[in-house]
Amino acid sequence: MSGFDLSGLTASFGGERVLGPLSLTVNPGDQIALVGKSGAGKSTLIRLIHEQVGRKSSLVPQELGLVNALPVFHNVFMGQLDKHPTWYNTLTLVRPFAEDRTEVKALLKALGMDEKLWIPTASLSGGQRQRVAIARAIYRNAGLLLADEPVSALDGPLAHLVMSLLTERFDTSLIALHDVDLALKYSNRIIGIQDGQVALDESSHRLSPADIMGLY
Ligand SMILES: Nc1ncnc2c1ncn2[C@@H]1O[C@H](COP(=O)(O)OP(=O)(O)OP(=O)(O)O)[C@@H](O)[C@H]1O
């Protein structure tokens, strides 16, 4: 599974509607950049979609959800926790299997931080922590990526490296991005959210930065 077809998506806080009702069809091969100004409803939409598709997706949430006391390895390994029996996960906590160590290390190398494999995530920088959450999502290897501002803490070259890695590893994705240039470069479809509704849904190659800036 990689696409989805959802309708009746709504969210309210304190009795006030902040999103929807809206419908969204994502086809296999759609690499979507979700854009819109702060507070438009992007995170809320990603959360609602994740609630529906759940385990079938790899998620990079804005609040990264790392376990600070555990090393980078174990935080990345968590991406596959539900794919192994309990005994395997318990043993991994004490002494990770060589095959998993090799796989996670290679992934971290691609993200430029394999030397941090055994460092507790508490002692990493914001950008390093963000890359751990990205590694966890890639390691999960689901057919659909849902990511909420996954490169917000990364500098320009690293942001490009991570975006191209995500594009390569996930055929189907929905990624909230506040950087319009990254959104255009690393997507084939742009969805713009304005006041909790879909205000733009278009192939990326038909859009210019100015078209997207109209949402802000
Ligand atoms: N837990 C919450 N309690 C109350 N209101 C909330 C809550 N979460 C989100 N909202 C409101 O819902 C609306 C949409 O928020 P959301 O976080 O989805 O926006 P966003 O487009 O992701 O913004 P940003 O780009 O700043 O992350 C905002 O008006 C926000 O204040």
Model description:
There is one protein chain. The chain has 216 residues and is of the alpha/beta class. The protein has one domain (4-213): P-loop containing nucleotide triphosphate hydrolases (Rossmann fold), CATH 3.40.50.300. Helices cover 37% and strands 24% of the residues. The protein has eight helices and eight strands. The strands form two sheets. A six-stranded mixed β-sheet has the order 4-5-6-3-7-8. Strands 1-2 form a two-stranded antiparallel sheet. The chain is globular. The two termini are 33 Å apart. Adenosine-5'-triphosphate binds next to helix 1.
Identify low-pLDDT runs: none
Query: Which fold name corresponds to the CATH topology?
Result: Rossmann fold
What does the average pLDDT come to? 95
The computed structural class is alpha/beta
Proportion of residues in extended strands: 15-25%
